[in-house]
Amino acid sequence: MAKERAVVVGAGGISGAWFPPLIAEKVEVAGVVDLNVKTAKARIKEYGIDAIASSDLKATLKKTKPDFVVDLTVPQAHCTVTCTALAAGYHVIGEKPMANSMAEARRMVRAAAKAKKLYMVSQSRRWEPKHDAIQRTVAKGELGRMTTANCDFFLGAHFGGFRDVMPSPLILDMSIHHFDLVRYMTGTDPVAVYAKEFNPKGSWYKNEVAASCIFEMTKGVIFTYRGSWCAEGCATSWHGDWRLIGDKGTLIYERDGDPNGQVVKGKVSGFGANLKPAKIANSAMKITGMHGALREMLTFLRTRKKPQCQCHDNIKSLAMVFAAIESSNKGRRVPVRAL
Ligand SMILES: NC(=O)c1ccc[n+]([C@@H]2O[C@H](COP(=O)([O-])OP(=O)(O)OC[C@H]3O[C@@H](n4cnc5c(N)ncnc54)[C@H](O)[C@@H]3O)[C@@H](O)[C@H]2O)c1
């Protein structure tokens, strides 16, 4: 199999999670681009790769002619970097969140369509065997028809740095993971939301770092999300603690434990139904996180099989983020509009 060639843009913190899978997949990293060339050079040295270090993306693309570009820059730069790569004729895989605004995200979708190139967003939490098992369990109808999804996410997170002062730190920086997961697990898309963001008493954040949101999803599913990065004690999982309910039973996934559930056994007569353990589907997923996303991009390059999280789909998860903020600002229910 011929080696694919890539250019990595953004050599900051998260690139440390991308170079090992790129190397494991024998992708030839031909260029590393960062506004700060020293940062690019340091990564090249750290991983012992034979790549150009540069702060000029266009020039690096011209020189290296890669098969794809990996956009690991900060959210404010995703639109410029990804649109530059697409316009130059290259496929892109990029970090979440897709963009810093819906206007930028829509521009990126149009840029991919115009260039006839693929742009996928890496929502790393999709590539997790327990999440794959939940998705399969729901899809095979074990719980019956889905009615309800609840996710709780509570942590006392003392990051320091930009999150302490940015607007809507929870919804903008974290909830995109949970919003994308509910779409993945239940096979539904967002329709409308009522949300209330708030900053709890004693908060060490400048802005609203907690939220309660009620999303109306397609297929009549209601998704309730409660989250805070300013909640000391009894932390949930970073993936969130989940309860999924269908008209035949319930699945619970909490604190990273094995998903489990109960479903109705036989006919209901009297107050409570007879119940039996839900059959949780097996997952054969071996490659997880960013590596899973990268593998789907490589599969696309080799076979043209379309990956998950292409931009015109992932924009629906991003739309949940911006609609929740809009709803909270307006104090009313708002539609979730992606494109
Ligand atoms: N999937 C996850 O769980 C996860 C975890 C952490 C971060 N992330 C995402 O990864 C992305 C990067 O986060 P990070 O923590 O590595 O940030 P970072 O600030 O550590 O690194 C970003 C790098 O991009 C460079 N950069 C910025 N604008 C650029 C531009 N226009 N051209 C070239 N380089 C540019 C910066 O100089 C910096 O070196 C963000 O979108 C973040 O949300 C995802």
From TrEMBL:
Keyword match Chaperone: no
Annotated GO MF terms: nucleotide binding; oxidoreductase activity
The GFO/IDH/MocA-like oxidoreductase domain, residue ranges: 133-251
Keyword field: Oxidoreductase
Keyword Oxidoreductase set for record: yes
Record-annotated Gfo/Idh/MocA-like oxidoreductase N-terminal domain positions: 5-122
InterPro entries to which the protein is assigned, alphabetical: Gfo/Idh/MocA-like_OxRdtase_N (IPR000683), Gfo/Idh/MocA_oxidrdct_glycsds (IPR050463), GFO_IDH_MocA-like_dom (IPR055170), NAD(P)-bd_dom_sf (IPR036291)
PANTHER family referenced in this protein's UniProt entry, alphabetically: BCDNA.GH03377
UniProt protein name: Gfo/Idh/MocA-like oxidoreductase N-terminal domain-containing protein
